[in-house]
Amino acid sequence: MSSRPRWHDFSALAAGALLIGATACSTPDSGGGDGADGAAEGPFTIGLSNGFIGSEWREQMLATLEEAVGEYQAQDIVDELVVESADVDVNGQIQQIRNLINSGVDAIIVNPNSPTALDQVFAEADDQGILVLAIDQAVTSESVTNVVIDQGEWAAANAQWLADEVGEGGTIIAVNGIDGHPANEARWAGATEVFDSAGVEVVANDFAQWDQATGQQVTQNLLASHPDVDGIFVQDGMALGAFQALESEGKVGDVAITGEARVGFMKRWAEQREEDAEYSSIGVPNPPAGSVSALHVAVRMLQGQEFTSDALDGNTLYLPIPETVTDDNFDEQFGAVEGEPDTYAVDGSLTPEEADAYFQ
Amino acid sequence: MNTLTARAGTSVSNLTRARMPMVATTVLLIVTVTAAATLQGNFFTPYGMTANFATILPIATVAVAQTIIVLSGGIDLSIGTIVTLSSVVTVRLMDGGDPSQVPLALAAGLATGAACGLFNGLLVAVLRLQPIVATFATSFVFGGVALLVLSSPGGTVPAVLTGGYRQVFAYLVPVPALLLLVLWLAWRLLRAQRIGQYLYAVGGNAGASYASAVPVTWVRVFAYTAGGTVAALAGVALLANSGSGDPFIGNELTLGSIAALVIGGTRLRGGAGGAGGSILGAIILTLIQNLVFFAGVPTNARELVNGAIIIIAIALAGLLTARSERAGRSEGRTA
């Protein structure tokens, strides 16, 4: 080894250091929003962090939010919506949120990729005086206000319908989302509670990643090994696939299946109703426009309004679930969304007036 | 310079050309830092610096790990899952927030990373499997074991780690930046040892190294084991960054680590480059992602613009690397 100094290595670092040093004293402002100290006048800047794209549900979540922001912009209450939306892992979403913090937003609405692994970056936002609201999935961080539907309640509504269909002593198979996923766990806990008290037996439980094609495959496999079941509990995003599996087995009228409040499934449901007036299903909405409800809540929190004493459960605001699609209201509900693409989800959000009711 | 390259290293013209990748990397660094400082209003604030370095440290550490392996003529497609596996082992052992558990948990995490690296090294160097295929396969093994260790996201990292990770010294020097410096110094230390020389020799020309009595097999096993150990450090950085465990947390870092080392001027065929360049490459890569956001590129176009800029960065580094290679074929460079 020669003793030639590798000055070029150091020169690279030194160049960076010099650059940093030269400008270090010029911009000593601290970051963060200007809504840091309680009540503020606005207009407010809202950030959105979304870590999963390519799903119509998420597109709908974004589109409805942009529309609602437009209304606030017209009133000069919100000046800008800054969107960070990409397929990222937890690290990528941490980077998204840091970018939003560094761009000086007043509040961040986040659809979190993890219930726990973003807690530290949420605390960073809190330290910078930025409000954080989680939608779709609740997080554990105390720095965050969750604005979500109760996934257990969502699943229980589906399970109750299925339990009534198959009756006491009935057997069902379950097609769930992702094993260990918090929303999946909350849903399955809510559903099993209903099944247990109704005396319904779950003979098999498998996972299909909330994907229609996988849902079809998994349902086919489960039906092959359990041909005599009375019902299928399937979560949304997979119900159409499960229905198709049932169809290929020729068991559509015989085996009850929980549906979904999405246009693709509702079209099949409508066809089935024409063939068989007795055909029954259910679609409990999981509204993408929870983003809009969160926006209404965020604006009121930024304006310094205080929650009523019973608005929150811990740090979570549970949104009402929009009206369930049932056999009775099917024609009306289907008529309202018939023109939308197959992947469109029946939607609903708090109105500004309904949001006011959560505040003093 | 070792004996293989001593003659080439003394030529002044070769010396100048040999520095070309480093020049390219430095130019890219200056451009990205200047652009970031201009577009991100709070770049030079304590939080701005902490946020950037906290994001950079994990990817930079994985890039260093990958560099050690690539220099020796290998590649590790399982490195992201090694990060994941060692981080979930660590978080399982330190869960509960008891600070006295931390040293043991960290040691177990590092041992896990080293064991994974050793396994890869034996497959590649002793069983002579193709590195790309062998480590692609082990990525599923390590990722699968990680799911067994921690089946769903959870676990709490003690505040001593998450808090310490966010400390800032002297107003603008965040802890992750200091750790990055320590990592680079450790690399320089390794580089100065005989084994550091051997890495370049084996990666540059394994046959000639063997003929020169370099223990080629052992050097390769060492490279994978050292890479695995450094990857485990990245796992710890991720834990400190996120504050919680996740059975997929490191998996996507593999390709980023390779991109960072290429931008940093390390030759993918091995034998030339260094960890210093890879660290700068990781900084450049991360800042580019941030820049695309701060420049106000519409959301749906960001991935495209980001990818295009990275291609330009890699092409710039790659073109200059190729030119310097034509000038001095067998020369090993350091960075």
Automatic annotation (TrEMBL), chain A:
<protein>
    <submittedName>
        <fullName>Sugar ABC transporter substrate-binding protein</fullName>
    </submittedName>
</protein>
<dbReference type="InterPro" id="IPR028082">
    <property type="entry name" value="Peripla_BP_I"/>
</dbReference>
<feature type="region of interest" description="Disordered">
    <location>
        <begin position="341"/>
        <end position="360"/>
    </location>
</feature>
<comment type="similarity">
    <text>Belongs to the bacterial solute-binding protein 2 family.</text>
</comment>
<dbReference type="GO" id="GO:0030246">
    <property type="term" value="F:carbohydrate binding"/>
</dbReference>
<keyword id="KW-0732">Signal</keyword>
<dbReference type="InterPro" id="IPR025997">
    <property type="entry name" value="SBP_2_dom"/>
</dbReference>
<dbReference type="GO" id="GO:0030313">
    <property type="term" value="C:cell envelope"/>
</dbReference>
<dbReference type="Pfam" id="PF13407">
    <property type="entry name" value="Peripla_BP_4"/>
</dbReference>
<feature type="domain" description="Periplasmic binding protein">
    <location>
        <begin position="46"/>
        <end position="306"/>
    </location>
</feature>
From TrEMBL, chain B:
<feature type="transmembrane region" description="Helical">
    <location>
        <begin position="51"/>
        <end position="84"/>
    </location>
</feature>
<keyword id="KW-1133">Transmembrane helix</keyword>
<feature type="transmembrane region" description="Helical">
    <location>
        <begin position="278"/>
        <end position="298"/>
    </location>
</feature>
<feature type="transmembrane region" description="Helical">
    <location>
        <begin position="132"/>
        <end position="150"/>
    </location>
</feature>
<dbReference type="GO" id="GO:0005886">
    <property type="term" value="C:plasma membrane"/>
</dbReference>
<feature type="transmembrane region" description="Helical">
    <location>
        <begin position="170"/>
        <end position="190"/>
    </location>
</feature>
<dbReference type="Pfam" id="PF02653">
    <property type="entry name" value="BPD_transp_2"/>
</dbReference>
<feature type="transmembrane region" description="Helical">
    <location>
        <begin position="104"/>
        <end position="125"/>
    </location>
</feature>
<feature type="transmembrane region" description="Helical">
    <location>
        <begin position="221"/>
        <end position="242"/>
    </location>
</feature>
<keyword id="KW-1003">Cell membrane</keyword>
<feature type="transmembrane region" description="Helical">
    <location>
        <begin position="20"/>
        <end position="39"/>
    </location>
</feature>
<keyword id="KW-0812">Transmembrane</keyword>
<keyword id="KW-0472">Membrane</keyword>
<protein>
    <submittedName>
        <fullName>Sugar ABC transporter permease</fullName>
    </submittedName>
</protein>
<dbReference type="GO" id="GO:0022857">
    <property type="term" value="F:transmembrane transporter activity"/>
</dbReference>
<feature type="transmembrane region" description="Helical">
    <location>
        <begin position="304"/>
        <end position="322"/>
    </location>
</feature>
<dbReference type="InterPro" id="IPR001851">
    <property type="entry name" value="ABC_transp_permease"/>
</dbReference>
